[in-house]
Design brief:
With about 350 residues, this protein is α+β, with helices and mostly antiparallel strands. The chain folds into three domains: about 100 residues, no CATH class; about 60 residues, Signal transduction histidine kinase, dimerisation/phosphotransfer (DHp) domain (Helix Hairpins, Orthogonal Bundle); about 180 residues, Heat Shock Protein 90, CATH 3.30.565.10. It contains seven helices and seven strands; from the N terminus they run H-H-H-H-E-H-E-E-H-E-E-H-E-E. The strands form two sheets. A five-stranded mixed beta sheet has the order 2-4-5-7-6, with helices on one face. The protein has a two-stranded antiparallel sheet with strand order 1-3. Helix 2 packs parallel to helix 3. The radius of gyration is 31 Å and the shape is elongated.
Length: about 350
């Protein structure tokens, strides 16, 4: 039992009330005071103590009720005082405050989603409309180059729609895990080849588009390091493709001109387990932001050194990567690195009990 729990306080109240009544009764017997006066004094003392304890218990509940009512009306900025209390009411106050913080974050994310998606949709729609208007007005001919421009903007729209569908599947938990054994080197080589192609995301497998649409940078060099070369792993290849593609896309966006992105693969501790690392040479991520990197709609605050196209995307890519890793029962996080950003992924492979 906690030393300051409500049960302890109520038990102390009963004990103190009994001691007061007993003490006054002994005083009455020794001083020959009438019993009715002792009874009145005992009742008054007990009521005063009870009122003090009751106020200390009901006042926080009244405040919690007020804050909860504000939250129900959409005001997520209110907080309950007394979360540092060392009793059940302190725990309840802390829980309500965390709930308010989570709801406030969700509301902020919802507004950011509308703003981000609107921003992402506006550019390709405006560009596509301009191309089509020029064709209709006879300003430009419907030649292959014009159609390629229109196709590129249509693919950007398709990429955003696929990302939102991934998010919907993530929330609903409808994507199954189909793990199998595969060779790591040829698999990752294919992922890197796709990332190096112009408009790489257009050639990604269905349902595995990165949240940023598609990067168009060709000055960043991708390097693959797999040791041993015959390394094998046991995972869902499609979900792992999501992880690696999103990590590469994020690393490329934050790389300096003519930078280098390295993808490393090493065996893990368990059979067919895998440790993946994606490292860039960009500005890195402050340690204070490490816990927010994989939150939805977190577009980061580091400036990118390569122009306006890399505006941070929708901020869903790393969140989807974390979800895919969690689906495997693995871990993903930012690791210490002397330069740039290092993201480390650990997949568990085959459990020992299944070997």
């Amino acid at each position: 039992m906690r030393p300051f729990s409500i049960k302890t306080k109520l038990g102390t109240l009963v004990v103190v009330s009994v001691f007061i009544t007993t003490g006054l009764l002994m005083v009455a017997l020794r001083t020959q005071t009438e019993l009715r006066f002792i009874t009145v004094f005992s009742v008054i003392a007990t009521l005063l103590i009870t009122q003090f304890v009751a106020h200390s218990l009901t006042a926080p509940l009244d405040e919690m009720n007020t804050v909860a009512r504000s939250i129900s009306h959409g005001d997520y900025t209110r907080r309950v005082r007394g979360a540092d209390r060392r009793d059940e009411l302190g725990d309840l106050a802390g829980t309500i405050n965390r709930m308010a913080e989570d709801l406030e974050a969700q509301d902020r994310h919802r507004k950011e989603l509308v703003a981000n998606v609107s921003h992402e949709l506006r550019t390709p729609i405006a560009a596509l409309r301009a191309v089509l208007e020029n064709v209709v007005d006879g300003v430009s001919a419907a030649d292959p180059e014009t159609m390629r421009t229109a196709l590129k903007q249509t693919e950007r729209l398709g990429g955003l729609v696929e990302t939102l569908l991934d998010l919907s599947r993530l929330d609903n938990g409808v994507i199954p895990l189909r793990a199998r054994r595969f060779e790591v080197w040829p698999y990752l080589s294919g992922v890197l080849r796709e990332a190096q192609l112009p408009g790489a995301a257009a050639s990604q497998r269905r349902g595995m588009l990165s949240s940023s649409g598609r990067h168009t940078r060709t000055d960043v060099h991708l390097h693959l390091d797999v040791s041993p070369p015959e390394l094998t792993a046991h995972a869902d290849a499609e979900r792992l493709h999501q992880v690696v593609a999103n990590l590469i896309d994020n690393a490329v966006k934050h790389s300096p001109p003519h930078g280098r992105v390295t993808v490393r693969a090493r065996p893990g501790a368990a059979p067919e387990s895998l440790t993946l690392e994606v490292q860039d040479e960009g500005p890195g991520i402050p340690r204070s932001e490490w816990h927010r990197v994989f939150e939805r709609f977190n577009r980061g605050h580091a400036a990118t050194p390569h122009g306006p196209e890399s505006d941070g995307g929708t901020g869903l890519g790393l969140a989807i990567a974390r979800w895919a890793v969690d689906l495997h029962g693995g871990r993903i996080g930012v690791a210490e690195s002397p330069r740039g950003c290092l993201i480390q992924v650990t997949l568990p492979g085959i459990p020992w009990s299944h070997v």
